[in-house]
Design goal:
about 650 residues, alpha/beta, 7-stranded mixed β-sheet, 17 strands, disordered C terminus, Flavodoxin/NO_synth
């Protein structure tokens, strides 16, 4: 065979091999174009099919079930809640129920006096019901008696950081309020607040709030009945839309809050029925939590200074300033007083306060108490949480009050007498307990016991030990047979050494080294570390029960275990919340009657009859030990019987 001929026949293959790179590129481009073409064709076919299928069929899956999108916007029923004083709101609720029934939807009408939001309100988050609230505003801007518990619970939940802004996310609601515009200062206040607090907790408003006006002259539609009919028509139309799974789209060109879809998300709607005052508009949530006061108090202080400048020139004295040449100013400023009062604090005099703990409320209703109930036998429904000093010497990074309480290294404010503070503390505490009479779930026995304070937790806010008359205050507590649990931030060693016996003395140990304490507590004292150590040494010298309360913050102070161990050795506390064990049994509880006997002996002896923690400890009941299920008090068990149940301390 001719070699030249063989070469000529192979040359195309050689050329192809030589240019194989271009061949690969061409194949890759061709495959890519084919894939893109197939995707375009399939998408076009899918769109064509969707246009040809009737809308009603789009809501059905291949198996005949309702699609996910349809389920998300469907309505399974309506719950109508009402709070009525004279029966008008109740009648409106019945009328609304009849109209909803005509749509073929299940409906339930609920009297708020029989409804427990603690147990059931969160259930509306996962349900597909729409909740309608028909609530009246009674004398003085208060809710009807039947709605007081729900109203108070909702207010506290909206201002409690532990619930958060998504607690009711998923719940759908609408509100119609009844009021009288003749009382302009609180016209429809209850309806507005219920609407606002539900929105604050993350619930979704399905229709703008309606406001009925008993004043015919000012009523938008001529009468409160006509106002309700107009709102009911809007509600039913919206309900029908939701039931069909339709949602009006926003064109995107409207201002927030002006179109139907976005208006439902606003805390305050711009409607002809909204009579919110101008003071509400800058702040969509005028109920200010203690945790959110920083910015507001700063603005208030700035405005106050601007107002005081011309007044100082004219020689006028502000009530929050000095009342005379030698008189000190009040600790509680007007802005702080207003904000704390909104949050449920009952302020006493110029520097003290009392508030109901959530565990007090829980135990009144036959539920569990706080950890001090398990550890030490504290009956939470008989515990008063108070403080004789709102001021503090630290500005801790984790302060839940955002550093809005006054700070200082010494007492520089005018001072109220301890007798007045204790008397008003007990009176205010009892007044708050009285508000729970008739609340769903409240046990009559515990309500009666709750009126008789047995324990006092001096840990509400601030630094109680700063109060110059703290020893006299403690003596008065013990004379009333009220136990004392006092918390200090370990910056006042002299005051700790001079402190009279308390039932249990707590020290907050927020860090274990000088650097971390400075970063975390941000103390005002320059010699803060030495004061901290001296305070722990002073604690070690105390003969009564002492406790270290550790505040551990991730990435701040959890890696200093050896340093914490050294601090424990320095202060030698009886507990780091739980420590005392005798033989094989825990003895963490307190014999409170025995403590009161020892205190009386101490006072009568002028301080010479000392006593120690072991003199009034009591065995921990089996149900309070780790791993056991709490069963409450056994009236047949004399070791844990509550004594002096009938003693009246209202005169203390």
């Amino acid at each position: 065979m001719d070699p030249a001929g063989a070469w000529d026949s192979a040359s195309p293959w050689v050329s192809l091999w030589t240019n194989r790179f271009y061949v690969y590129v061409g194949l890759a481009c061709g495959i890519s174009l084919w894939i893109c073409f197939q995707m375009v064709v399939r998408r076009r076919d899918k769109s064509s099919q969707e246009r040809s299928v009737p809308k009603a069929s789009q809501d059905l899956g291949t198996d005949g079930s309702i699609s996910l999108q349809r389920k998300e916007v469907s309505v399974s029923g309506v719950k109508i809640f009402y709070g009525s004083q004279t029966g008008t709101a109740k009648g409106f609720a019945a009328s609304l129920a009849e109209a909803v029934t005509s749509l073929g939807l299940p409906v339930a009408v609920v009297d708020l006096k029989d409804y427990d939001p603690d147990d059931h309100l969160v259930e509306e988050v996962t349900g597909k019901n729409v909740c309608a609230f028909v609530v009246a505003t009674y004398t003085g801007g208060r809710p009807p008696h039947s709605a007081q518990w729900f109203y108070r619970w909702l207010e506290e939940a909206a201002g409690d950081f532990r619930f958060g802004k998504t607690y009711l996310k998923g719940m759908r609601y609408a509100v119609f309020g009844l009021g009288n515009s003749a009382y302009a200062s609180h016209f429809n206040k209850v309806g507005k607040n219920v609407d606002k607090w539900l929105w604050t907790l993350g619930a979704h408003r399905v229709v703008a709030r309606g406001e009925g006006d008993c004043d015919v002259a000012n009523s938008t539609h001529g009468s409160i009945e006509a106002d309700f009919r107009a709102w009911k028509a809007r509600f039913l139309a919206r309900l029908h839309t939701l039931e069909k799974g339709e949602k009006k789209p926003c064109a995107g060109s409207c201002k927030r809050g002006q179109c139907e879809s976005s208006a439902e998300e606003e805390p305050f709607e711009s409607t002809s029925e909204d009579e919110s005052g101008a003071e509400d508009r800058p702040n969509p949530n005028p109920v200010v939590d203690v945790e959110d006061l920083g910015r507001i108090v700063s603005c208030a202080k700035r405005e106050k200074r601007e107002k005081e400048q011309p007044e100082e020139k004219s020689g006028l004295l502000r009530s929050s300033g000095k009342n005379g040449p030698g008189e000190r100013r009040a600790m509680i400023t007007p802005a702080l007083r207003e904000a704390l009062t909104r949050q449920g604090y009952q302020l006493i005099g110029s520097h003290s306060g009392v508030k109901l703990c959530r565990w007090t409320k829980s135990m009144l209703r036959g539920r569990g108490g706080c950890y001090k109930h398990t550890f030490y036998g504290i009956e939470s429904h008989r515990c008063m949480e108070t403080t004789p000093s709102l001021a503090c010497a630290n500005k801790c990074v984790f302060c839940w009050r955002h550093h809005t309480n006054p700070v200082g290294t010494e007492w520089r404010w005018k001072m109220d007498q301890p007798e007045v503070i204790l008397k008003e503390s007990i009176e205010n505490h009892q007044s708050m307990i009285k508000q729970f009479k008739g609340v769903p779930g409240v046990k009559e026995e515990r309500f009666e016991e709750g009126m008789m304070v047995k324990h006092c937790a001096l840990s509400l806010v601030g630094e109680p030990i700063m109060y110059p008359e703290i020893n006299r205050f403690l003596t008065l507590l013990h004379e009333c047979k009220i136990s004392s649990f006092l918390v200090t931030n370990a910056q006042f060693p002299v005051e700790i050494r001079n402190l009279k016996p308390v039932t249990q003395l707590y020290v907050s140990v927020d860090a274990s080294t000088k650097d971390s304490l400075k970063k975390i507590d941000r103390p005002l004292f320059k010699d803060f570390w030495q004061r901290f150590l001296d305070s722990l040494k002073a604690l070690a010298a105390k003969q009564q029960r002492t406790v270290y309360r550790l505040t551990l913050v991730k990435a701040w102070n959890v890696d200093e275990l050896q340093a914490y161990a050294e601090l424990v050795s320095l202060g030698n506390p009886d507990f780091i919340e739980v420590k005392f064990k005798v033989g094989s049994e825990w003895w963490t509880w307190i014999d409170y009657d025995r403590f009161q006997e020892l205190v009386r002996e101490y006072e009568h002896s002028g301080g010479s009859a000392t006593f120690g923690a072991q003199d009034y400890m009591a065995r921990t009941p089996p149900w309070a030990v780790f791993g056991a299920r709490e069963r409450g008090f056994d009236p047949k068990d004399t070791r844990y019987q509550r004594k002096n149940k009938s003693k009246d301390i209202s005169g203390c």
